[in-house]
Amino acid sequence: METHWCRKLKGGIGREIENMALNAEKLQREKKELLRKLDSLEREIKIQEHDLLESINQEWSREEINTARFI
Fold it and tell me: In this entry, which stretches build a coiled coil (predicted)?
């Protein structure tokens, strides 16, 4: 791994800046992963909502058919 540019700074500040930069990169990766999971969950919710609406529509159709039979 290449040395981070801030390591070349005088004193201990270079290591501190490098640690902060690495932590920021880690947080960005975690954010990206969480956003990917959120997108996946939102897709799953949409699928479940669609399935629920389909199920409700089918039930209503059956009830309407049964009602029509008794009229």
Answer: 17-58
DSSP 2-55: PPPGGGGSSSTHHHHHHHHHHHHHHHHHHHHHHHHHHHHHHHHHHHHHHHHHHH
Domain span at residue 23 reads 5-70
Tell me the mean pLDDT in the region 27-55.
96
State the CB neighbour count (10 A cutoff) for residue 47: 10
| pLDDT interval class at 9 (50, 70, 90) | low
Of the two residues 59 and 27, the one the predictor is more confident about is 27
Domain count, the chain: 1
pLDDT at 56: 76
| Residue 71 DSSP one-character state | -
